[in-house]
Amino acid sequence: MTAEIWDIIIVGAGLSGLSAAHLLRKKDAKLRILVLEGKGRVGGRTVTTDIPAAGGVDCWDFGGQWVGSTQTHILELIKELGLETYPQFSTGKKVHHMGGPDAKVRTYRTSIPVLSPMVLMDLTQLLWKLDRLCATVCVQDPSKTPNAVDLDSMTLYSYLEQHTWTAELKEEMGLCSRSVFGMEPCQMSFLFFLMYAAAAGGMLRLLENTPGSAQELKIKGGTQQLSERLTECVGWKNVRLGSAVTAIWQDAEWAKVTTPTETLLCRAVIVTCPPHLAAKIHYEPALPSQREFLSQNMPVGHMIKFIITYQKAFWKEKGFSGEIVAGSSTDCPFSVTFDATSPSGNAALVGLITGQQASQWSSKEAGQRRTAVLSSLVKYLGAEAASFIHYEEKDWAEEDYSGGCPVNVMAPGLLTYYHPSLRKPCGRIHWAGTETATEWCGYMSGAIQAGQRAALEVLAELRPMTLSQEEKEAVRYNQTVKGPNQQSQSFIFAYLSTRKAVVIAILTVSAALLLAQRQNALQKVKTFLTNAFSTTKQNKFLL
Amino acid sequence: MTAEIWDIIIVGAGLSGLSAAHLLRKKDAKLRILVLEGKGRVGGRTVTTDIPAAGGVDCWDFGGQWVGSTQTHILELIKELGLETYPQFSTGKKVHHMGGPDAKVRTYRTSIPVLSPMVLMDLTQLLWKLDRLCATVCVQDPSKTPNAVDLDSMTLYSYLEQHTWTAELKEEMGLCSRSVFGMEPCQMSFLFFLMYAAAAGGMLRLLENTPGSAQELKIKGGTQQLSERLTECVGWKNVRLGSAVTAIWQDAEWAKVTTPTETLLCRAVIVTCPPHLAAKIHYEPALPSQREFLSQNMPVGHMIKFIITYQKAFWKEKGFSGEIVAGSSTDCPFSVTFDATSPSGNAALVGLITGQQASQWSSKEAGQRRTAVLSSLVKYLGAEAASFIHYEEKDWAEEDYSGGCPVNVMAPGLLTYYHPSLRKPCGRIHWAGTETATEWCGYMSGAIQAGQRAALEVLAELRPMTLSQEEKEAVRYNQTVKGPNQQSQSFIFAYLSTRKAVVIAILTVSAALLLAQRQNALQKVKTFLTNAFSTTKQNKFLL
């Protein structure tokens, strides 16, 4: 048997792998590039599906969905591929339910939920602290962050236990953690959380749909088109579906890549699948133990996404935006919903069952899950929610060659001990995938950045002449370390310099003075106020 | 091609797999049992190797080595297989070096190192707290432990940050963590740490070589003999070496097990390899996502073990026991050494380079590592240490089909969310390996207990008539949950009721009063003393 010979084999036909292939071909059209994909489709953690809707059939994203105007890598690709974005609808009342099934369901219209003064004060001081910490994080090399070892030795849960004093805020942060990572605060390193936020330009960007944030825009026709159009650029003949890589051998001359049916030879391999899947591939010679330890410390999150189509967007008519956030203490299975009405006007809601709620609900019957989702929607938006056209869901833990979504997090200690192995090539093997990104890590944009970075790495080895001086420097730069991340610096201060900040500050101080007398929280309030006032000169927080 | 047909296939020819096979055959000699092993030898994490020694050649254990008189499962097996134990030599001065390369090297003769009064006080209160917590842990179902979620949401590091107040004790505990788990305190859940200690009957048992503790006895001729003799019982023809399992398929009738060269059919499979290796097997249908998430949250430790043979045990002649403990802040690469003189009198020392020190030192050249080890031994035991016969080491991270040692730990959140999947069979697949044990989890004895438990599970399905009523109940019992672990209850109180406790208590109080005045530690000391005295009535700590 003669093995097929390629220049570069890419493992995974998601955004990272296809972006790598696309850049490689743009740089040198003669390069023989093959993309191997375990699934029967391209797109990885993005998938766009047709479902019945008011106007017949329309398509929705059941994986990665949103992009933000600060996500330069994906915005450039959208433009290049001739796709269009449109804003996430967010006008109207948002629903907020925390504090147990019987707690009052509140509505609000700003980007900060209606909270009691005490919780608002708690939130303000926490955001302040988190964004100040974020600004100190070195995304390229998190071990260079001040107090890195301490920050990486505790879970996000432990930090919140120490730095919040209201149960409501802890519940809010649990919801944030689940919605962003599909993981509970106890499952990830606090430094990882900070790094992830810093790579996005600040924590609030992860949560909001305001300009620049992660949930700002959507792509007309769905995000899977990105991968489909990239595949067209790369050539469908160069992308093999249903071809899961089982082993990668390396010797002085070749890398040998095997699937259950084929053995292929090449000069370089780019592995783009998430770490827990990359760990299932058999490597010979074995990967360095540090790399093995790395993938043992990066579990993947759990999310179930649902889309419900309706005859009309009854929530809009009732003054709702469609956005609901519900804490895990309520009976509601989902963490968040948003309006998902399509560009052609087909009314829909999208929601996410996340983290441990996803794990609990995934073991139940689909019908039971749907009933619980609908019953919560009826509670929050009204009886019209029960009269839907179609309910469709996707449990990413059940998807072959994914096993979870949206991202692999890092357990405590990983950043301290194993981070250097995250992007470091192992012989002919280069690592991509959104987990290796330094800008919008964990997002589609990060997947593209990582794929392009790995492509440049491979070119620097195989075709150095195709690289510009700038690109060569980028490769070198990515293999070295930069200082503290500048992007997120003073993000909270910009945020707080709006009128909202003044309102929060006034509320906070009033609440502090009122509550201190009757809640025995005097000491904590005093500490907070001292901190707040002591930094006034620098950042004009209260002035 | 006709596939071979077996009744039961066991993945892994370590102590767990072979104990399972042995029990299965004892119960029904007609059962066709096949053990498949990736390595070229039996024994798993135990391996006994001949090396040059004073009397020519002698053998030493480079993996699991010690047993304790409370480890009933392994003691019974030792007896059954006709092997003998002998005590770990511990007479003489022990060396203790903590607090930086220039800190004073101290010696001591008790089981508690010579510590400053402040550190001793800190240690006493910490042990007190830890053992009180241990006594509340439900090993069978740790989620039933009081405050389980809180305890599982923090790392051991976080607990130590909150409950110790001297840097020296933190360093001591780091050393304990590395020596026991091959892991740093920041890498594991605090509840896991407690559960592990509870499964051993208390924390001190993990650390000591006193009667009942983990380092009490050794096996004449080495521990690998256990696996070799078990293989003789099972029949060498039923154990295939160099046969790594790559995939397990299941359908209504069969389990199909594949290696790179064979496909085998059977009725039940027992997977005994550690979780990070079990995760590399391809399963069809896919395992439940909860099981996949479990193995993503159980990283393995890192240890390098060395044996150095000498003409004579010069340390004994100089009054040393051979036991050295050295903190990571010193220049010493190893964490601990012990006397390893063989039963036939060949002098040797055994030592462990552990946790992150193992990771750092494993990337260096073998010669450089050896020089550093010997230079530390010269420093602690005298110039004679440099004149050795042979230096042999084993880096378990480099061993194929191990990738680490001694045990897989549990990251925060695992026990809260995924623990039910640890022993729960997945169709025809049953899970063993020391990580699944409830008594001496992580030790050789636990491996045997787990293998026997899995064997009984399989018999309950395939040959229920071979089981006694008691065994049937054991299977049911293991599939349910018991209350708080009784074994470790009041362990610390028994420990502290010795004269040592009185000495510690007197030292502690004196130190407290002296140091409180000049170290601004008044509040902490007061708290400790209040706690100590307030529990006096119940446990006679100070009386």
Quick recap:
The structure is a homodimer of 543-residue chains. Chain A contains 21 helices and 22 strands. By secondary structure, chain A is α/β, with parallel strands linked by helices.
What does this structure look like?
- The structure is a homodimer of 543-residue chains.
- Chain A is an alpha/beta fold and 543 residues long.
- The first copy, chain A, has a domain at 5-46 and 224-298 and 405-479: 3-Layer(bba) Sandwich (FAD/NAD(P)-binding domain).
- In chain A, 39% of the residues lie in helices and 17% in strands.
- Chain A has a 7-stranded mixed beta sheet.
- In chain A, strand 12 (247-250) and strand 13 (255-258) form a beta hairpin.
- In chain A, helix 2 crosses helix 16 (444-462).
- The relative contact order of chain A is 0.19.
